[in-house]
Amino acid sequence: MNTDTQYLQEVADSDYEHGWAVDIVSDTIPKGLTEDVICLISEKKEDPDWMLENRLRAFRHWQTLARDKDKYPRWAHLDYPDIDFQDISYYSAPGSKPKYKSLDEVDPELLRTFENLGIPLEEQKVLAGVAVDAVVDSVSVATTFKEELAKLGIIFCSFTEAIENHGDLVRKYMGSVVPYTDNFYAALNAAVFSDGSFCYIPPRVRCPMELSTYFRINQAGTGQFERTLIVADEGSYVSYLEGCTAPRRDENQLHAAVVEIIAHRDAEVKYSTIQNWYPGDSQGKGGVLNFVTKRGICKGAGSKISWTQLETGSAITWKYPSVILQGDHSVGEFYSVAFTKGRQQADTGTKMIHIGRNTSSTIISKGISAGLSNNSYRGLVRINKKAANARNFAQCDSMLLGDRCGAHTFPYLEIHNPTAQVEHEATTSKVGEDQLFYCQQRGISEQDAIKLLVSGFCQEILAKLPMEFAVEARKLLAIELEGSVG
Amino acid sequence: MTPVLEIKGLKTSVEGMLILKGVDLVVNTGEVHAIMGPNGSGKSTLAAVLAGREEYEVERGTVLYQGANLLEMEVDERARKGVFLAFQYPVELPGVSMMNFLKQAVNALREHRGQDPLSAAGLLRMAKEKAKLIGLDPRLKQRSVNEGFSGGEKKRNEIFQLAMLEPVLAVLDETDSGLDIDALRSVADGVNQLRTTSRAFVIITHYQRLLNYIVPDFVHVMVDGRIVRSGGKELALDLEEKGYDWVRYDAAA
């Protein structure tokens, strides 16, 4: 179908909607990474001594990895030139003021930035009932609803504040799920991370609102190294939203975040992400390099961690939100939609590590590839020796839009207990010409038909997102598919 | 008066093989035409060409729809101008809800006609009313399009969509195939409800039995890519009695 190819080409070439940069006075340190830089970051962050020690330990470990290019992680189905880690600035804070007491003090230009992205803080405070911890570049500039949450004993604040005010909790849990020795980028993050979010839900408290964080990368040539730490104490519940967009940049931007979740006995954490960073232009120039380590541990019996993600951005995505099922009867879930177009490359999936007895995990991954992009699912299901009666269900569906893109599935199963029940299903389909024809025969244009079919394909995942997020997700997906329409 | 459909000397091929070898057919508004014929005679090809399937190459001939060249129109344009095809094998659209699908289709149509889009409530009301008319299980409206529908439900869903989209020309491609007698009768009832003086039907069928329930104004017999005989509704009965060999012999003679 000629018109089909043409349209898909247009989709693949369509411009990034959030591509602009805002002029904000910035506090950026020179490029390069040395112990001096680590100390400088630590000083700017006003770290306590133990944190500086942590950073230096992680940095020295990272150096042993970075010294030898053979130790760079290269196993993913991704193709990009080696990153020059000395050509990156590792700290950037918006505004000349180091701290804000209220929203009024925030650079109005920055607030306008959020408004353009459709996330006006003021309005959200009033309308949506969502507490927002907005991270622009590396420093939290606004935190809302904190007082209301505090009444319930919930702590929701920037990582910097957490280090200052809840040092004992941070020391106890930080690095307990993703130690700095875990991988190359986790080590880098532990050394240079500048800020992020911290969340603690006390025993038996059900967090009454969706907690959300918006990340943005706004400084040319600066990396973004966020850390998120969520601790759900016994019998508590929290739903956490993370949404991202970034302005257009010509040079690659490195992003290496770490997210850690700890769920104690009978606790439940639901973590939802929309990732929409700048993917680069149609020639593959620019775009965010996204190397993220996200992992949760179901520490206590009957606990549950659920990851839901919509990945549409970044030039390179390297991301495997995982769950360690340590507690008996614990539950891990991973629901993912990854959409790639242009020259984007995504290698994403999950790890479900079954340790406790009667643990169960579900993996549903939907990959959609357009243009010249490559989209891979990579997932590990490991059932340890003592994990009696573990169950896993995995379903990986890929949809190809056009004939120049790729979809790949790399499932790994390691089963060390004979009572395990593991199911894996995988399908790959081209967006069906019969389905398109059927829609068009009902008067629906080809573009609208493709949108309809793709959103149908993703429906079961989008339905897992919290409502207001799901609306945003559908909108984003439609914009991504829009091409030249409208 | 301009006919709704005017086919002249239509020859089409698929992958280099000639399927339709010169078809002539005129359909006026308000008329119901049945096209019968043995398997492989080209009936479904004719339906596909009218709807605009790309894999069929038009070698010769013309097709006018309301006086305009149908063959030059895109698939969705034909649909918006009132050409409806009830599919022999309706496809499943996983995850696409019936109501969302109908909303897009109905509103594409309304936009074409210069009407405002139908509100969610308006659409729901219309769907409810039409489902009742056709005898479609209202619960099916809550599901994804055709997903997990039985054969009969899929066919009934086609007629339901016909009712929703109110076409000028409805082509039914073997809507009766695979239906038991009860399902057949209820689908036929639906179609009869939708017969109006401003709508034309082309009903493609292998068997005469559908025509017991939907009584056509004209019957055409297609053999080997040509319409070899045309007549009134009694022709269908003759065929039932004598079989296709009768016309096949006739055509050869």
Index terms:
heterodimer; A: 486 residues; alpha/beta; eleven-stranded mixed sheet; globular; B: Rossmann fold
Report a brief summary of the structure:
Chain A has 486 residues and is α/β, with parallel strands linked by helices. Chain A has helices spanning 2-13, 35-44, 49-66, 108-116, 121-127, 146-151, 159-165, 167-173, 184-192, 433-441, 446-462, 467-482, and strands at 26-28, 92-94, 131-136, 139-143, 155-158, 195-201, 211-216, 226-232, 237-245, 253-255, 258-263, 268-276, 288-298, 304-311, 316-319, 322-325, 331-340, 345-354, 360-369, 374-383, 391-400, 406-415, 421-430. Chain A has one domain (2-484).
3D structure, described in words:
- The complex is a heterodimer of chains A (486) and B (253).
- By secondary structure, chain A is α/β, with parallel strands linked by helices.
- Chain A is built from 12 helices and 23 strands.
- Chain A has one domain.
- The longest helix of chain A has 18 residues.
- Chain A starts with a helix and ends with a helix.
- In chain A, helix 7 packs across helix 8, helix 10 packs across helix 11 and helix 11 runs antiparallel to helix 12.
- In chain A, 26% of the residues lie in helices and 34% in strands.
- In chain A, strand 3 and strand 4 form a beta hairpin.
- By secondary structure, chain B is an alpha/beta fold.
- A 6-stranded mixed sheet of chain B has the order 6-9-10-3-11-12, sandwiched between helices. In chain B, strands 2-1-4-5 form a 4-stranded antiparallel sheet. In chain B, strands 7-8 form a two-stranded antiparallel ribbon.
- The longest helix of chain B has 15 residues.
- The model of chain B has no long low-confidence stretch (mean pLDDT 92).
- At the A-B interface, helix 10 and helix 11 of A face helix 2, strand 7 and helix 3 of B.
Radius of gyration of chain B: 18 Å
Could you tell me the radius of gyration of chain A in angstroms? 22 Å
For the largest sheet of chain B, list the strands in their spatial order.
6-9-10-3-11-12
Count of alpha and pi helical runs of chain A: 12
Tell me the fraction of residues in β-strands of chain B, as a range.
25-35%
Stretches with pLDDT under 50, minimum 5 residues of chain A: 95-100, 122-130, 137-142
Quaternary:
heterodimer
Number of domains of chain B: 1
- Counting DSSP H or I runs of 4 or more residues, the number of helices of chain B is 9
C-alpha termini separation of chain A? 22 Å
What is the name of the CATH architecture of chain B? 3-Layer(aba) Sandwich
Shape type of chain A: globular
Name given to the CATH homologous superfamily of chain B: P-loop containing nucleotide triphosphate hydrolases
The total count of strands of chain B amounts to: 12
Structural classification of chain A = alpha/beta
Q: Return the string of H and E elements of chain B.
A: EEEHEEHEEHHEHEHEHEEHH
